[in-house]
Design brief:
Blueprint (H helix, E strand, L loop, with lengths): L1 H16 L1 H4 L14 E2 L4 E3 L8 E8 L2 E8 L8 E7 L10 H8 L4 E5 L2 E4 L7 E4 L5 H15 L8 E11 L1 H11 L17 E7 L14 E4 L3 E6 L7 H9 L1 E3 L2 E6 L33 H20 L3 H14 L5 E6 L1
Helix pairs in contact: 3-7, 7-8
Amino acid sequence: MRRRQVLLGLAALLALAGLGLASRMIHEAGAGREATGVVGPARRLGGRGGGPAIWRFPALVHGDPADLYLPERGPRDGALPVALLLQGANVARRHYARFAASLAGQGFLVVVPDHWRTFPPIPLLGRRLLLADQRQIGTTLAAVETLNRVGPAPLRGAIDDGRLVVIGHSMGGLAGLEALAGRCRFPLCLGTYRRPPALRGGLFYGTDLVGHGGGPVGPIETGTRPVAMISGSRDGASAPADVEATWEQLRSRRKALLTVEGANHYAITDTSRPVNPPSLPPIHPDPNAASGDQAARIEAIARWSGLFLKGEVLGDPAALQRWHLWLRERQGADGVRARQGG
């Protein structure tokens, strides 16, 4: 795979550069790096499939430009758990708008940042990329705690900052898996990382560890934190067999493997061939074309992702009952099939 070759090549370059360079932080420092807050007016989006209306806020999350999505709530509704979406390499946050809004409608505050990193962190060789970092989990938790205290309505007082799930796409999924395993491994993670107690579980699309590090996939210890992995049947960047091989190595009490018929590597982006504007780095396209209705596919993935996250990860009884009902009786009707393990 192209991305595996890139990672292995970067690892070799970084190793040659010496331990001094390898220990540097990936993201650049600078004024305003830690800024958090809403930076523009909210937009009210229509609900999907009879669901609640969605609010979208432009924000800064620890200096990263981000979009925040949350459902319109009644006075008796409980606080919303946080779902952090870690983007695929160079996939701008705007491409996840439909998926994020649909997931928010199931009762989450969905945070979708654009995270810039200089990679590899070597003078003259590094490039500025949109690339997820597992340490975004800690900075996001700090940011939403601030927004919960001093943010504008309807954010203020609406967030359960003690419960966070991580969602990752492609290389964002690699960062999320490492975060759940409590690992910080070169070259994707430099410095230190500590898994926060608020991190409860995760779900990853188009992510696998086959070939990374030059060997077979080793055990991935997530303990009590449930994990779901999703693959597209036509994914040309992360083959279904490789996603399954990675899933088999998850050491989690509860895990699920979902397969989406007709989907390529970009099943959770607004289009199956997302393109960035010229001001941003280009997205590496999937050589395989998707088949079927992309909008319907996004809604199906978001629906079953939300049930897994709320039911298996966060212990919501109603969501758990619906999740198990689907596993028993309703698989395949919308192009998504699943099996559980653990």
